[in-house]
Automatic annotation (TrEMBL):
Keywords: ATP-binding, Nucleotide-binding. It comes from Canariomyces notabilis. Residues 44-56 have a biased composition (Low complexity). Residues 1-56, 88-110 are annotated as: Disordered. The keyword Ion transport does not apply. This is Zeta toxin domain-containing protein. It comes from the Eukaryota. Pfam families: Zeta_toxin. GO terms for molecular function: ATP binding; kinase activity.
Length: 439
């Protein structure tokens, strides 16, 4: 049996898909759920459904002319991204603290880096505001106030919008827009994280893990270098940017925690269609993202990339993989879209010289794979059937073909055991983001 879990994020009976239960976010907050079901809408007439008559053979040449040079990439980072995504949220030193020796000598707590992983359409937008709110509440406690009180919330997808040709590609060749901007977006996210780590602020990052090595690279930003784990036992395809370690400086040793959303492919693919055709908030235009329909190929790459990232998460801490080096991640939870936890593991001191060990066996990938292959619950089936009914009502042949595939995937799960993990409990978000020890 996999490790037990902790109590309470939300009602365990909340529909796992629940796309028909959302609302627009209040001003200044992230997207949240709602009890007001949106009305079915016709297929939106947005730029993401428009394409030119350019031949497929010509597209690679066109995209190559839109690639950024290293100088352009850096200019956008420093002139547009950092001033917008990071600098407004960095604390300024308090004069009294900078001159008071008592304040200077006071131990500072370890900052948190919380990474939310899930394939496109898995529901990261639902989980992020819950963790963000919980962390902000903890920061307000007097005994946790270290003068920063900042959470930098970064969403991997939003960095695509800084690519100067992303909007044009979305208009003319929508199925290639993510590929055009994805590499630069991943690097920008990593670089912003490096600057945030240099400031020692708490960070919440949402990532779909589409590209091999993305997750490992993010972990490297927030983990202190150890001689035996300099490469984190991973042949990442995302090489470390020049000077990244110098930028981060590792003045702060981060407490890195990972939340993995384990969602069957049929539900995430259905979620993508539902959020787009019903114009749900997370489809855009939040934080500069246009309303977009994620291509099937992007979803599938993300689906596979998540499994690779979670597999690395298990392997990197095994003694035969990293020679017993300190853990780069302190806690991992795998949960369903409705917040029920199927796996919860964390490091703890073994009582022998302060060395760290995992409390339970490393089985995050096992939990992810079991969740993806299990039968749907009654609540999940009901919510999915409602979304299918609404989308069928659009009368769009392309959508109908996609729905046919989704229904076949759902049918393949029927009859499989749903109750693989007994007595599941909701994630205790306050416990998961609990501010811990000193650096």
């Amino acid at each position: 049996m996999l490790p037990a879990c902790r109590p309470t994020m939300t009602d365990p009976q909340e529909p796992a898909l629940g796309e028909s239960a959302r609302r627009s976010p209040p001003p200044g907050s992230s997207n949240r759920l709602s009890s007001n079901p949106p009305q079915p809408l016709p297929a939106p007439t947005t730029t993401s459904t428009t394409s030119t008559t350019t031949t497929p053979e010509a597209i690679p040449s066109i995209l190559s002319t839109w690639q950024l040079t290293a100088a352009q990439h850096a200019q956008i980072l420093h002139n547009e991204i950092l001033p917008r995504e990071l600098y407004p949220y960095l604390p300024t030193p308090r004069p009294a603290e900078s001159t008071n020796p008592d304040t200077q000598s006071r131990p500072r707590r370890r900052p948190l880096a919380i990474l939310i992983l899930g394939q496109t359409g898995a529901g990261k937008t639902r989980l992020a505001p819950l963790l963000l709110d919980a962390l902000q509440q903890q920061q307000q406690q007097p005994h946790h106030n270290d003068g920063k009180g900042v959470v930098v919330h970064l969403i991997a997808d939003t960095f695509k919008t800084y690519h100067p040709h992303y909007q044009t590609c979305l208009l003319t060749h929508p199925s290639h827009a993510s590929r055009l901007a994805g590499s630069d977006a991943a690097a920008w996210l990593r670089e912003v994280c490096s600057h945030a780590a240099h400031a020692g602020v708490d960070v919440l990052v949402e990532s779909a893990c589409r590209r091999r090595g993305e997750f490992e690279a993010l972990v490297r930003v927030f983990s202190p270098p150890h001689p035996s784990s300099h490469h984190l036992c991973s042949a990442s395809s995302l090489p470390e940017p020049p000077g990244e370690r110098a930028v981060a400086g590792y003045e702060y040793e981060y407490d890195v925690r990972v939340a993995v959303l384990a969602v069957p492919a049929c539900l995430s693919r259905l979620g993508i269609l539902t959020r787009y055709y019903r114009r749900l908030p997370e489809a855009g235009p939040a934080r500069g993202l246009p309303v977009r329909l994620t291509p099937r190929g992007v979803h599938d790459e993300s689906y596979a990339g998540l499994a690779a990232a979670v597999g690395w998460l298990d392997r990197q801490q095994q003694d035969d993989g990293c020679g017993g080096s300190p853990a780069v991640v302190g806690r991992v939870v795998v949960l369903r879209r409705n917040g029920l936890v199927v796996y919860d593991n964390q490091t703890m001191e073994d009582g022998q010289g302060g060395k760290e060990r995992w409390r339970d066996r490393l089985a995050a990938l096992e939990a992810l794979e079991m969740e993806r292959a299990r039968g749907l619950s009654r609540e999940e089936e009901a919510a999915a059937e409602e979304d299918l009914r609404v989308l069928r009502g659009l009368g769009d042949p392309k959508v109908d073909r996609e729905l046919d595939e989704i229904e076949r995937l759902m049918a393949g799960l029927r009859g499989r055991q749903e109750g693989v993990f007994p007595d599941l409990k909701p994630l205790d978000v306050q416990d998961f983001v609990a501010i811990g020890g000193e650096r």
